[in-house]
Specification:
The protein is mostly helical. The protein has one domain. Helix content is 79%, strand content 0%. Helix 1 runs antiparallel to helix 3. The longest helix has 25 residues. The model has no long low-confidence stretch (mean pLDDT 92).
């Protein structure tokens, strides 16, 4: 895979990183209410997964070597999907 380190990709990566922080902050805020946290645990975990995926995709866009960065993805499902890009 060729590096995706263009100016537009770096800007997209920055937005993805910002979104992941916003999504995590939302999840943390919702977890602050134990009643909400107990009733919506699956949804809160989904929020966390969204943030993780966004961070992983942002790292791919910053990567000098996509193949190496794909192998560093901590989420198995996303890593496998990104391997299909080869």
């Amino acid at each position: 895979m060729a590096p995706a380190n263009t100016a537009s990709h770096r800007q997209i990566a920055l937005v993805l990183e910002e979104l992941s922080q916003e999504v995590e902050a939302l999840g943390a805020s919702l977890c602050g209410d134990m009643d909400v946290a107990m009733r919506h645990m699956d949804s809160l975990q989904a929020i966390d997964l969204i943030a993780q995926k966004q961070r992983s995709l942002a790292k791919l866009l910053h990567a000098d070597c996509l193949e190496t960065e794909v192998e560093r993805i901590g989420l198995d499902i996303l890593r496998e999907r990104m391997r299909l890009m080869r």
